Amino acid sequence: MPSRFGTAVRIFITTLFAAVVLFAILLAYVTGYQFIHTEQHHLSFGLYGAFLSLHLLLQSLFAFLEHRQMRGPSRPQHLRRTVALCIAAYQEDPDYLRKCLRSIRRISFPGLKVVLVVDGNRHEDAYMMDIFQEVMGGVEQTGCVVWKGNYHSDGDGGGGKGSLHTEEAARVARVVRSCRYSCIMQEWGGKREVMYTAFKALGDTVDYIQ
Predict the structure, then answer these.
(1) Which residues does UniProt assign to the signal peptide (predicted)?
(2) Using one digit for the tens of pLDDT, what is the confidence trace for 35-73?
(3) Are 195 and 128 in contact (CB under 8 A)?
(4) Which of 42, 47, 117, 154 has the fewest CB atoms within 10 Å distance of its CB?
(5) How many Cα atoms sit within 13 Å of 202 on the Cβ side?
(6) How far are the Cα atoms of 74, 121, 151, 170, 185 from residue 194, in angstroms, in the given order?
(7) What's the CA gap between 197 and 120, in Å, rounded?
(8) Residue 160 has what DSSP assignment?
(9) What does the buried/exposed string (b/e) look like for 88-117 if buried means 16 or more CB atoms within 10 Å of the residue's CB?
(10) What ranges in 76-125 are assigned the alpha helix state H?
(11) Mean predicted confidence (pLDDT) in 168-195
């Protein structure tokens, strides 16, 4: 409640200040009153200019106060929500993928889960899982799965969903949910299929998915 009240007060003061400035500028423009002017009126400083100068001064003051507040020590944040970061990969440039994973390793969000889903499970796609293991392999709770199919395919080119498909799908979900960093190589199905795998495997185990 106090924060809402403070926000409402700031909104009111800001609106009131804007209304006063607008009224003052209009009044100064209509009256044309001048404080200082030369004999031929080549140079003059009137009420309009005074209000504009005051407005500029106040803007500079508020900007300085805001900048000082931003540079001040930040309050400790208590992050209680769980977040998973999902990456879709398809024939990625090795250097870019390696830089992407290294940047993710530097994220300090507590308990962040990372799921890399490779759209393709052929031999020529294996380098992406190798890069994942290279960058993330030194971390505990890291898992990798090569899936012959995906959630909408059994891996044999048909639409059947046999017991082997069910077991592999369960294994994928188990690895994704139990490991902080996981990589899934699956049968090619497009970006939507890759995203579906990450969403389906994570389920409701996290609060947010990015």
Answers:
(1) none
(2) 676 766 667 667 677 777 887 888 889 888 888 888 777
(3) no
(4) 42
(5) 26
(6) 38, 12, 9, 16, 9
(7) 13
(8) -
(9) bbeebeeeebbebbeebeeeeeeebbbbbb
(10) 94-105
(11) 95
> In terms of residues, how long is the chain?
210
- CA-CA distance, 160 to 196, in Å (whole number)? 19
Q: Parallel, antiparallel, or unpaired for β 44-46 and 34-37? A: antiparallel
Name the more confident of 137 and 89.
89
Nearest alpha-carbon partner for 193 in 121, 125, 118: 118
From the CB of residue 57, how many other CB atoms can be counted at a distance below 10 Å? 10
Round to whole Å and give the CA distance between 98 and 203: 27
d(CA 184, CA 114): 11
Torsion of Cα atoms, 172 then 175 then 178 then 182, to 10°: -110
pLDDT(15) > 80: yes
Higher confidence at residue 137 or residue 140?
A: 137
Task: Provide the edge-to-edge strand list for the sheet that holds 142-146.
Answer: 142-146, 181-186, 113-119, 83-89, 208-209
**Which tokens go with 75?**
């309050």
Which H or E run includes 145? strand 142-146
190, 156 contact by CB (below 8 A): no
Q: Which amino acid is at 105?
A: R
Do 149 and 187 contact (CB within 8 A), yes or no?
yes
